Every structure is written in structure tokens, then in C-alpha cells.
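Dig into my protein:

:::
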Amino acid sequence: MNRNTGAAVYVAGHNGMVGSAIVRRLTSLGYVNIVTASHSELDLVDQRAVRAFFEGNHIDQAYLAAAKVGGIEANDSSPADFIYDNLLIEANIIKSAHDFGVPRLLFLGSSCIYPKFAHQPMAEDALLTGTLEATNEPYAIAKIAGIKLCESFNRQYGRDYRSVMPTNLYGPGDNYHASFSHVIPGLLRRFHDAREGGEDKVVIWGSGSPRREFLHVDDMAAASVHIMELDREVYQASTTPMLSHVNVGTGSDCSINDLASAVAKVTRFTGRLTFDNSKPDGAPRKLMDVTRIQALGWKPTIDLEDGLEDAYAWFVSHQADFRGR
């Protein structure tokens, strides 16, 4: 392992769910020089601003956790925003990191890079073997571009830029917007509001049959730092120049129906669960093959029940932040 707690480590997106978890993890491990910049200080879509930031800061490692994210409804209603903003963020940071000599970078992608009907569990070599899920295709294409940017700078310039592909993430710092959140925060808020409002049922998008894998964000942060700290030779031995990314997940999944029941238990909602079949299900199943990351010495430590309790406790303590949204 290559741990240098005195290194200057830039975390792009440090105020987001994943970025803030990475900062927590780095801090707990004794890193003392964590570099951050809020959106008001640095607009990552602005190429000149990003280049000036890298020129003015000596960065040893960069975690690219910044992204425009959202659930099915957000992706479906704003496809241009999702592909444009994410392409620019990735291109600006990765190119500036190269130009200003950042030795090591970790790009965080998404499981949506894999084809809608990929063989389950989805191994890294499923990338670009089929059609993407239509509802989040623009976002997925941007994430694929990020992987290929890292691969291309490695191949052409000998850089050590790595990529991790997390499964569905949840936990403290998540987005609990009433319309534009992912499945777990969306369900937690919906069940909480229903209980608080005395409602007798909660309506859930889709059939409830799709199966999804979920990873607590603190596990994701631990995996990200683990991959970043691996010696170059160890990491490269597990990948190829044309297949450089590593899946991060739990290796197990559950149906949306079962997830909704678990959320109802956590939020103490005792009413009925109904499903709206007119709404899209998305991919029928999304389970990661985690053979590679397990061989590299990492496994998750937070099970779904404990993770949901933690996520719900965070929401309850921050729900005023989401009032009216």
C-alpha cells in the first residue's frame, strides 16, 4: 500500500455525498493536507477556472467525485444537462491534472455504464457490449467518457489515473428532493412524510420487481481510498490498458419491493405499499461482479439494514434542509 498522509489530496465534489465521505475517510486515516473548493470558489464546468486552480495548487492526488447526479425522473427530464455538465467536469479536471503533473487520480463512475441487459452479475468487461438503459443514457455516456479519458492518458502519457464504478449509493449527505432523488433517499422521504402526514399508503414507481444492489457511501469511500493507495504495479496487474476500471459493490441485491418493505420498517410506516406500473422500471437487474476488488483486498462492512438506519437518522436530523423541495 502507498499511504502518504502528508500528500496534497484534492477532493472534487467534497460537499456532495461521496466527496464528503471520502474527506471523512481520509481524515480518519490521518491525511492532513486535504484540498477542497466549493462551487462558489471553483466552477468545474469552467475550463479556465479549473486550469487556474490546478496551476495554483500543487496536487499529489485527486479524487474526481464531482458530478451532476439524479434519479430516473431527473435524468429523463434533463438529459442535455446531465451529459454536458458531466463531460465538462471530467474533461476539465482530468486534462488539468495531467497538464499540471498530478501523479495519481481516481475517477468515480457509475454502474449505469453497463448495458441494460448485461449478464448478471456485471463484470468490468461488460462495458460497451450492448445498449444502455434509455432513461439515463446521457449520464452513462458521460461516465464512460471519463473512464476512457483516464485510460487514454495512461496509454499515451503513462499516467496513473484509475476508475472505480460504484453500485447504487446511499447514506449521509444524500439528496432527499421530493422529485429528483435516487431510490433509497426517495423512499425514505416518501415513507417518512406519509407516516408524519397520517397517510395509509405509499405509491412506488414501477412494478417493484427490478433488483438492485446498494452500497453505503462510507463503504464506497473506504473502497476509493483503498484503490487509490494500492501500489501502481498491484493495480495495473488487476486491469488492462483498455479495461482499467474496477467495480465497487456488495455482490448481493434485493428487489425494489423488498427494499420498500425494509424502508417502511426503518421509518415505522405501517400503511400499505402500492406500485404504479405506468412508471418505468429501468433495468430489470443491476448486480456488480466484485471479484476484482475483492482480489485487491477490499470488502464492504455495512449491511443494508444498518445502512438504512444510518441514512434515515441523517435525514431526520437534516429534514429542515429539504422542506419545500
User: Anything to note?
Assistant: The first strand starts at residue 9 and ends at 12. The CA atoms of residues 29 and 156 lie 33 Å apart. The chain is about 40% helix and 15% strand.
